[in-house]
């Protein structure tokens, strides 16, 4: 049987060893460029001139606010007061860009560019400006001297753009320096994009992060028959902010063995001489694209079995701050950590440094690159692709223009039938899995589900009836027995939340749709990724009008805190939603549906939305069902509402409000209401359930928030409110702090108390049980304090008794475990 990651069956012959290429010791899989090169002298001259223009613009962006073309000697007043850009990675980024442009023009390629190195914006903004895209999007940054001056001044300048590849940058879907997410984003862009090549430049500092390390394995999930390709380009420039990088300081053999071990076919382009490097890079890129196309051609033949090839990658070893000053005042600059940010910063007021800057900028010979009006000369303009083939204008990088609405089935077809509320048990997420199955069926080229080895665990396994798990690695006979693996699968599973969410974000930002699920406690793994995506959406949605809306990022948190009693303390953490409330209200939504039908309604709503991050908290275990599908639709439309059946204040002023948010929190609150209905029949109790968490916030702060009158209509203006919450109690106080009656708001939530418990024991330990709620209501309602003393004592005894029973029998009492809502 052929090696699934071999080369001959992939369509491009046996590779030459390093020794056969005359490049030193032979290491299995080693590929280096050979002597000569495919470029004519004129091509080298023109490409290098274009690259010089890119580098000139990079330096100008960092340093200058005036005199953009050096038509006169530099003066202090030409220099920005605050020099905030990063020079070190920029030359390599634009070098790669120039070489990709050549192949795009020659072969009519559809290429997206992902810039991984942090603060690498100058290396991307320069090409975007030279291609004309930047001026098209921002007409005041015209392609002349006046526009160039504004282009320079805006960079890292108050009120304008930052030094990362931010959403304002045409051609970008990824903000460089996002803590290692470039490669997972790149692969997400390639899924279901068969004609696209995603060129992803990975910084060697970025390569030291955990998310980047796991993302290398994404090559095991690319199906060359239906997906595009990713060409990773690792830029080894040797340094981070002030330290060497690991991958730049290991031996070439060890480095190569690493990437061969990852399943790639690495090529090495190394050096600093521009002419030699242009020839090496041109040859290497040609070969890489040729091999990508050969793999795809073979895989797309109807009678060919799809196997996993060795995809090519490039290691570009170039100096930090390439083409910059070699040294200054006895200190090495090019090839040193000193070039990471601004090679020398004290230019204003320092004549020698001002002169050094001018000498550096004039070394690019701008007078040869730009005409008298400041426009790039025609010979160089001709090198760039045209229209949508420009990487800075590629529509995939503004994915909203390609997005098509999902074909969604009617949620009523999946509804749980609720004959008697509070008596039917059902796994809340199971109908959701059936719904997602048919969403997948209706959208087989633009919808995927992502989750870390937990699709069946989270009861979403109905999806496998339509599409199994993507798997391009080796398959064993045992996998046929329930393994649910397929070369053509559309369910993405890998035990790395970082890589999965990166895939999803790349998929969404290029115009497709998806759904992500994970265990609630482990969602914190993706805290920083959520942060960055929320910031990207905020800027795109509210400040970059030319970006079209993309499908929302939908996150299901299941296996929740209150049903992790068996896994223990480490699995009990409902705090991810606290993080979500810190981000912009314009892009964040949080839902805690109490049963299966409300979960269906919420999921349907989320899949229809755009430019949001929707977080849904719903457990997978069997729970009591409270709403019919029509009631669920109405309840979710309101976001929060009074449940009349559980209330005793009809046409009366309530004595107390019992509120709840979350599935188990709702069940315990209903049980408390039942106890009070029986034992304190004169109590006027209002029962409120919250599905949309942001309903508790002021309408002035969140689009889903409530007015003061709306909050008073639910919670009253002056009565005590006992609130049973799924998460940490402080979050409710944070959201409702502007509510005039917030002083009477008393929240029960998770208190970081747990271990290997029974479900009800966990509720008791954290004081969210029905007994604790009854006690709190007795304490807060003056009329009950004296009259309900015996009931309060019963509740205290019940707490002690249930704890003792759990510790003796290892389970909850049947009257607790089998409780139904009798009212």
From TrEMBL:
Cofactor or coenzyme needed: thiamine diphosphate
InterPro entries, per the entry: Phosphoketolase, THDP-binding, Transketo_C/PFOR_II, Xul5P/Fru6P_PKetolase, Xul5P/Fru6P_PKetolase_C, Xul5P/Fru6P_PKetolase_CS, Xul5P/Fru6P_PKetolase_N, Xul5P/Fru6P_PKetolase_ThDP_BS
EC class of the enzyme, as a word: lyase
This protein's record includes keyword Lyase: yes
Region of interest called Disordered, as start-end residue ranges on this chain: 1-39
Domain Xylulose 5-phosphate/Fructose 6-phosphate phosphoketolase C-terminal per the UniProt entry, residue ranges: 620-821
Keywords: Coiled coil, Lyase, Thiamine pyrophosphate
Pfam families: XFP, XFP_C, XFP_N
Descriptive protein name: Probable phosphoketolase
């Amino acid at each position: 049987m052929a090696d699934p990651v071999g080369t001959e069956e992939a369509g491009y012959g046996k590779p030459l060893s390093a020794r056969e290429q005359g490049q030193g010791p032979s290491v299995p899989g080693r590929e280096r460029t050979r002597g000569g090169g495919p470029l004519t002298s004129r091509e080298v001259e023109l490409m290098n001139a274009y690259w010089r223009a890119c580098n000139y613009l990079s330096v100008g962006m960092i340093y200058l606010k005036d005199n953009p073309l050096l038509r006169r000697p530099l003066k202090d007043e030409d220099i920005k007061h605050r020099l905030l850009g990063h020079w070190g990675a920029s030359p390599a980024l634009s070098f790669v860009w120039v070489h990709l442009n050549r192949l795009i023009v020659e072969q009519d390629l559809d290429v997206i560019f992902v810039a991984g190195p942090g603060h690498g914006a100058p290396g991307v903004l320069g090409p975007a400006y030279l291609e004309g895209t930047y001026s098209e999007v921002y007409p005041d940054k015209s392609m002349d001297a006046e526009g160039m001056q504004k282009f320079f001044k805006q960079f890292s300048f108050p009120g304008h753009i930052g030094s990362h590849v931010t959403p304002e940058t045409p051609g970008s879907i990824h903000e460089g320096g996002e803590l290692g997410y470039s490669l997972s984003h790149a692969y997400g862009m390639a899924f279901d994009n068969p004609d696209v090549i995603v060129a992803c430049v990975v910084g060697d500092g970025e390569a030291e992060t955990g998310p980047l390390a796991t993302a290398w394995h994404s090559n095991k999930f690319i199906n060359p028959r239906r997906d595009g390709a990713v060409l990773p380009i690792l830029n080894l420039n040797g340094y981070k902010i002030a330290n060497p990088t690991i991958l730049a300081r290991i031996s070439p053999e060890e480095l190569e063995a690493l990437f061969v071990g990852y399943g790639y076919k690495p090529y090495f382009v190394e050096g600093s001489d521009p002419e030699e490097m242009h020839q090496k890079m041109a040859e290497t890129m040609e070969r890489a694209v040729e091999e990508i196309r050969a793999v795809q051609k073979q895989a797309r033949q109807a009678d060919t079995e799809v196997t996993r090839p060795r995809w090519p990658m490039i290691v570009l070893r170039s100096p930090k701050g390439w083409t910059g000053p070699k040294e200054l005042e006895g200190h090495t600059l090019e090839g040193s950590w000193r070039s990471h940010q601004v090679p020398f910063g004290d230019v204003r007021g320092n004549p020698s440094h001002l002169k050094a800057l001018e000498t550096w900028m004039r070394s690019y010979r701008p007078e040869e690159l730009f005409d008298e009006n400041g426009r790039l000369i025609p010979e160089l303009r001709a090198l760039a692709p045209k229209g949508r083939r420009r990487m800075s204008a590629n529509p995939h990088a503004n994915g909203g223009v390609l997005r098509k609405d999902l074909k969604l089935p009617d949620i009523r077809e999946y509804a749980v039938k609720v004959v008697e509320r509070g008596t039917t048990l059902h796994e809340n997420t199971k109908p959701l899995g059936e719904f997602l199955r048919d969403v997948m069926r209706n959208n087989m080229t633009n919808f995927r589900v992502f989750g870390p080895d937990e699709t069946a665990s989270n009861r979403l396994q109905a999806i496998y009836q339509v599409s199994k798990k993507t798997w391009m690695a080796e398959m064993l006979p045992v996998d046929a027995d329930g393994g649910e693996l397929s070369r053509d699968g559309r369910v993405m599973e890998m035990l790395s939340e970082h890589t999965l969410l990166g895939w999803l974000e790349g998929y969404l930002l290029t115009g497709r749709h998806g759904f992500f699920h994970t265990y609630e406690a482990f969602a914190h793994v993706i805290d920083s990724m959520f942060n960055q995506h929320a910031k990207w959406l905020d800027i795109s949605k509210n400040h970059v009008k030319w970006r079209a809306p993309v499908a929302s990022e939908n996150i299901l948190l299941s296996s929740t805190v209150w049903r992790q009693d068996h896994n223990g303390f480490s699995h009990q953490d409902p705090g991810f939603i606290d993080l979500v409330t810190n981000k912009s209200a314009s892009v964040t939504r949080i839902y805690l549906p109490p049963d299966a039908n409300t979960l269906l309604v919420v999921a349907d709503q989320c899949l229809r939305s755009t430019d949001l991050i929707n977080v849904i908290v719903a457990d997978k275990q069997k729970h009591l069902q409270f709403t019919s599908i029509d009631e669920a639709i109405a309840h979710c439309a309101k976001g929060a509402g009074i449940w009349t059946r559980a209330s005793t204040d009809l046409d009366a002023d309530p004595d107390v409000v019992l509120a709840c948010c979350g599935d188990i929190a709702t069940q315990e609150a209903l049980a408390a209401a039942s106890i009070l209905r029986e034992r304190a029949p004169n109590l006027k109790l209002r029962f409120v359930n919250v599905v949309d968490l942001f309903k508790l916030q002021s309408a002035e702060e969140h689009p889903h928030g409530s007015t003061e009158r709306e909050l008073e209509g639910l919670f009253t203006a002056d009565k005590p409110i006992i609130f049973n919450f799924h998460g940490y109690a402080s979050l409710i106080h944070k959201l409702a702090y502007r509510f005039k009656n917030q002083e009477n708001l008393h929240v029960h939530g998770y208190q970081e108390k747990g271990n290997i418990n029974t479900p009800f024991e966990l509720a008791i330990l954290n004081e969210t049980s029905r007994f604790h709620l009854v006690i709190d209501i007795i304490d807060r309602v003056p009329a009950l304090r004296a009259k309900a003393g015996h009931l309060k004592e019963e509740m205290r005894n019940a707490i002690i008794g249930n704890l003792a029973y759990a510790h003796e029998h290892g389970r909850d009492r049947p009257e607790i475990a089998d409780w139904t809502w009798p009212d």
